[in-house]
Design brief:
The protein is built from twelve helices and 15 strands. By secondary structure, the protein is an alpha/beta fold. The radius of gyration is 19 Å and the shape is globular.
Amino acid sequence: MNIALITGSSGLIGGESVEFFASKFDLIIGIDNNLRLYFFGEDGSTIWNKNRLEQKFDNFQSNDIDIRDYTSLEKVFSEYGNDIKLIVHTAAQPSHDWAAKEPITDFEVNANGTLNMLELTRLHCNDAVFIFTSTNKVYGDTPNNLPLIELEKRWEIDQLHPYYNFGIDEQMSIDNTKHSVFGASKVAADVMAQEYGKYFGMKIGIFRGGCLTGPNHSGAQLHGFLAYLMKCAITKNQYTIFGYKGKQVRDNIHSYDLVNMFWHFYQNPRQGEVYNAGGGRFANCSMLEAIDCCEKITGNKMNYSYAETNRIGDHIWYISDVNKFKNHYPEWNWKFDLQTTLIEMHDKMNERITKNS
């Protein structure tokens, strides 16, 4: 039997992984205890997505397990052993701001939880491919030292800089920088995943995501930039911009495109390899540009306010250079541009809001 084990299986990337791999594996084992409800309240709850996936896929088996609980995880690994061919580890505490409130919880989930998954994979299914969803926050606020130019609606990097054409590559240092508490816990997990790949010779890919997005994101104020923005555009609830004049730039990768990267890696894996994963120059926007897009798609004027203080460790300009991955896996490319993603997000959200009203 071929089994894929997915943590955070009710979340954005975990749920997309369930959908993507359900037709490629005999059984999909999901691990998710809806900790987003604790982190972000009802807006962040993923129960609706878990129910949707259980109804849609007969070979999806969801388990209410916390990744900090080594004993409960071990029971799953012991039961299925070497039948587990793929682990997609997406479960995490994903917010800068929330991490600062409970640093111990944040570290236990992001670092210790990842170590639990790596060690159990080593002990029970050593030949499996392990995908770890890291973050561009491992680079801390180093990107803010780049030579940036203020334009009408965005910050942009100087055209003479090597990062201008494609964005930030994997050679950027992760040292001597302010990561945020969240970024630091993800650094610990990122480096440990690399170490298990290189030291133990395991098939492990580390994907440092930019803004991960898609129609099944349970966006909340503290996490899920585009999803929460679109939700506010539809409902006319107030949205708050934090600092940088609303001109901060993010690249955005659709959940399908990211999981498709996982699939390409799975078919030809490497040991402890690190990849930046984002929308690159193909799909990026500033906060003000995203607001313009949401207003055009919804036909609603956004109700937003501005707070001068930016989030600690937040990036002013970040665009991912994905050329390393493209060079290793030349058949992969993006499918969803920003406009397509936002329209899909709008339609799906309207559908859920109508269904629940």
